[in-house]
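User: Sequence in, structure out. Go.
Assistant: Echoing your sequence, followed by the structure tokens.
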Amino acid sequence: MRQKIQALEQIPLLPDWPEKTRGIPNICLRSALFAVIKRGRRRAVKNELIASLKGVTIQYTGWRLDQGDFDVLAQALHFQAREPDPKKRQFLRIKVKPFLAAIGRQGGKSGREWLKDSLRRLTATAVEIKVDLNHGVHQGSFSYAGSLVDEFYFSDEAQSYIIKINTKLAGLFDVGWTQVQWQQRLQLRTDLAKWLHGFYASHRSPFPVKVATLKHLCGSECARLVDFRRGLRLAMDELIEVGAILGWRIDQDDKLTLVRLSQIPMK
């Protein structure tokens, strides 16, 4: 019985990635799980079907997550992957100001309150993911159900958190993950640019995608496609500015094509 309990308590090791990148499951990069949400428009949902690529089904309950929440989870996973002590890896301690600095946020009162709200959202979630595997040796399906963060504790005196990340998240890496160039991401100004940065990084050979499809996949709340297309052009120019791509165009079929994507390693 003791051996069974110890086996259940084992924390699966995350993949290894360079310090300048962040390892992210492709499911998080190729869906609207971390959506492009306008400020003040966040809503709570129950069993909502989240937009994703074919072969992936995501149902979500909780407050909708955005690209800021993505940063928090990505940085927490980065710290967890680099923690050599299994016990400390299970209950991860993070200092507030260094953590906020690592995701490009100020450490003042508003930043600290925002971080606590983000951890509340990541904890109060119920995510159900099913992935159909039909390539190479991987056949069948993979399922994940649970929250993204199991629990967290805050020490006001030490200005630090203890976070318990759901250990099942390691399984999402097994069905594909990408190294996101972190400094490039931190330079991006808009959430749409950040989502596009991750989406295209997760493809070795990016294919032309219809503008309407991108709007659907990123969870954009733009009512009109013409408004989204305008924001898309600005976001793609941001990617050029940070060196993520060399160029782009929207063809006569209203498909977005990259001229060339910087080589970003992907597993």
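User: And one key feature?
Assistant: Residues 14-261 form one domain.
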